[in-house]
Amino acid sequence: MRFNYLIALIFINIAMQACTGGQSKLSVSEDQAQLPGDGPFKLINRLSGLTLTNDDRQETSLLTQEKESHSAGQVFNLKRLGDAYLILDSTARQALTVSPDAAELEGILSWGEISSGVEQMWQIESEAPYFKIRSVVTNELLEVYRKERGEGSLVSTWPEVGSGNQHWRLEPQEQNPRDEPIGFAAMGSGTQGGDGGPTVTVQTGEQLQDELDAAKKLGAPITILIDGTITPENSRGDKISIKDMNSVTVLGVDDRGVFDGIGITIVRSHNIIIRNLKIGLVDTGDKDAISIAGSNDGRTHHIWIDHNELFGSLEVDKDYYDGLLDTKRDAQYITISHNYFHDSWKASLHGYSDSDDQPRRITFHHNRFESLNSRAPLFRFGIGHIFNNYYHDIQGSAINSRMGAQLLIEGNHFEAVSNPIVSFYSKDIGFWDLEGNRFEDISWSKPSGGDMVAGPDGESTTELVVPYDYKLDPVELVKAKVLACAGVNKWHEESCQ
Question: Which parts form a coiled-coil structure per UniProt (predicted)?
């Protein structure tokens, strides 16, 4: 009971941190430093200037000091209980523990399941502007072993000697900083992803799926940083599955978040963010880079796909790979923004058949569609808003509105595109409201049967107003902005949000 209560207390506190901006306050006066509040911190050693690090995140992993980085292994969650603190890892699932025979082991530490036992309790004492971190069970201080100054040096506990290697600067960290989506994913409750939960870093598909499964079991939000290449060989299955869960962010670290030959499937889930990932050449599982599937039960909604690079190959048969980003059934309230789609026969399908008549709501903005055959996007039923995208070298058709879909298409730049806006191969035609698009080097096919094309004059066939606020860039600026901002390692740039 005590353990369950503590777990609940920790996650309630993390949620409260998110509601107040996700940051613990730590102010230092001239003569005294306030004790820290609850929340995420980095611990910087006074003597070496290096950062406390727990990269392995295993129960028996050793603490070291390393050069400061973006690793989640350098973020520790402090949780105050009375006059003492728990020091939790970045996942808030393990507590820093002093071994019972620490004296014989020279104060080496370990991670343990949270118990709130005395061996997990720490007192934090002001040594302005630094702090001493004292084990309640041994009365020893957290220190860099033997006053080492180099990266990789062990961190342990030792009796107080008054040295700078036993002093730490605590730097509060924002929890999961993010900006907001624009469009349908922002409506209603919005899309926050893993905001308010712990942040973890993974390098393999097996680690990624393990973290997803653990968060699902706990019913807790999570942000997972991808710092490595996910492949079928280092994964447990033929796809990464986000299924029957909510409040997840999967975010690539710089340009190192790569999925090679394996994709992500989102099923019956909501409040999901997929960001800053390079996903391509997916020939396993569903063969989609990203697949989003509802079950017609209202559980798949509020999903944001942002600043990714998704690609296949035009050098293979058109069915060798499937789509780059597909949705089906009642997946809705989705925003697809700042992505780079390229080299694929089938870019983005929404509604898998002429009977998939769900009222989907999807926004596409500031995406780059390059060297594609078709489906940019193909949209059946529902409502779509497609604005400020750049299209280049589209060989078959770009936007295909089918089965009564209504699309607001505005401020897009089409260059060297065949059939920019059409209703092809549909039992019932779809519709479009065209506003301020730019067409250069365009060719149109002569429609046959029930097919329709928007050219050459670009006439609207419906009127559509979307139910949210947004800023429309002048079409003259769209090409330069999209080329500069779409794709990976650009999401944190203010001009690209």
Answer: none
